[in-house]
Fold this sequence. Notes:
The protein is mainly beta. It contains no helices and 18 strands. The strands form seven sheets. The chain has a four-stranded antiparallel sheet with strand order 7-18-9-12, with no helix packed on it. It has a four-stranded antiparallel sheet with strand order 8-13-14-15, with no helix packed on it. Strands 1-2 form a two-stranded antiparallel sheet.
Amino acid sequence: MNCGIDGATHDFNAIPCGINGAVRQASELWIGVNGATKKVWPTFPVGGTVVIDTAGRTDWICPVSGQWEVEMHGGGGGPAGRGQGGSGYVPKGAGGGSGNVSTFTLVAGEIYGIVIGKGGTPGTDVINWTPATNGEDGEATQFVGKINGMVGIQNCPGGRGGDAENNRGGAASGNLATAGASYSGQLFLAGGLGNKNAPKQKYGNGGDSARAKNKPGENGAIILTYLG
Length: 228
């Protein structure tokens, strides 16, 4: 936001103000609007994004009221344990992905509780006569607070683990995610995606399964984008 000072135009970020006889740069600016005060600087830009991707619980304070796109990823599912083939291990089923996106009205100053889910661990490989086990499901990611005018909980379950008994990939969770690949003779099975529209993004991806090594599911995340 700009204003005129001494015939020139300046950004509010550069405006100094007097405090106890000293001149300091303003960190916030409020103006009166119809009898109420309104914060005009700094503002959160339309299209601005906040990414929260540390597994566990945290709090987030919404910087501005309005419409927000909330992309949520639970943990990706772990792959099933591997079986034994004629020349080594054989993958059985990759982990499913987790990802969902919705649009909500959020409230400035509201504290939102956030839980980011961990990715699932791989199942155990077959050992002698002990069969391989299923991959672990990913943990759910949650977003809790005042949503669309009411206090509520948004929940995104984790991707499902691969199925060792049936050689099947884990199921997807959410409208962005894809299932893990099932075994049909391959030596590598790709985990499901957490976001099929952004395949290079890792959040919520299911774990890959391969002859050489199985990979755990990726941790989840919440990506918030201000729409205005």
